[in-house]
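Students often ask why inverse folding is considered easier than folding. One informal answer: many sequences map to the same fold, so there is more than one right answer. In these notes we will look at a single instance of the problem. The structure comes first.
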């Protein structure tokens, strides 16, 4: 699973717009973005906003105290070691879009809802299967086909198990540039495809707020080199 900033970098390389942002590793870092901003803890657990891991800032004097508090905090048991500072987007539409594999139908599927945001699991979501040999945008999906095709292409090209954008919004940034933006992204890559992607150079993931043990790292290396696994 990728951290939010890693997933967004992947989307940006695939031609999908993201807000202007700055990744920091210490509270004293100089913030180069204009207000208003969102300060977002980079952890792998969900429900960050509920746990205080996403905070909107509208006054410069509040930035440092929030950063200091967040860096010394744990989100759902996971220590905050990196923070993404991101420009605010004025939102006109908010959507949920995800691509994944459905084990029931044994095919990749695309799901969407016109009510993106928190508690998406309680809302009605449309789902369509995709042909893995020739994946195209479903005709009844009410979003720009060019944008969705970029997501579909990225999902298969990058060997994703999950590519979830929640929310995908239409709006404008501080410079009043209107368009579609990814405000949050959850991306899970298939570890078995590591050999096909020399560009993957992600740091070891923390497990339950800690660095993986030597045995866990060794087991992952075995999985990457031998299809039979650990």
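Output (designed amino acids):
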């Amino acid at each position: 699973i990728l951290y939010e900033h890693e997933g967004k970098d992947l989307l940006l390389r695939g031609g999908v717009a993201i807000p202007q942002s700055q990744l920091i590793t210490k509270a004293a870092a100089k913030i180069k973005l204009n207000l208003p901003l969102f300060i977002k803890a980079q952890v792998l657990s969900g429900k960050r906003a509920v746990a205080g891991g996403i905070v909107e800032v509208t006054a410069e004097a509040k930035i440092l105290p929030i950063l200091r508090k967040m860096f010394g905090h744990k989100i759902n048991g996971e220590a905050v070691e990196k923070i993404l500072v991101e420009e605010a987007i004025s939102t006109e539409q908010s959507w949920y879009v995800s691509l994944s594999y459905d084990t029931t139908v044994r095919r990749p599927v695309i799901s969407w809802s016109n009510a993106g945001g928190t508690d998406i699991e309680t809302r009605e979501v449309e789902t369509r299967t995709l042909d893995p040999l020739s994946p195209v945008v479903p005709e009844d999906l009410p979003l720009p086909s060019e944008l969705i095709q970029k997501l579909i292409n990225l999902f298969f090209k990058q060997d994703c198990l999950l590519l979830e954008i929640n929310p995908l919004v239409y709006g404008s940034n501080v410079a009043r540039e209107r368009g579609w933006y990814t405000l949050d992204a959850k991306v899970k890559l298939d570890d078995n495809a590591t050999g096909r992607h020399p560009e993957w150079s992600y740091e070891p993931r923390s497990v339950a707020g800690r660095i993986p043990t030597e045995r866990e790292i060794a087991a992952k290396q075995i999985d990457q080199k031998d299809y039979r696994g650990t």
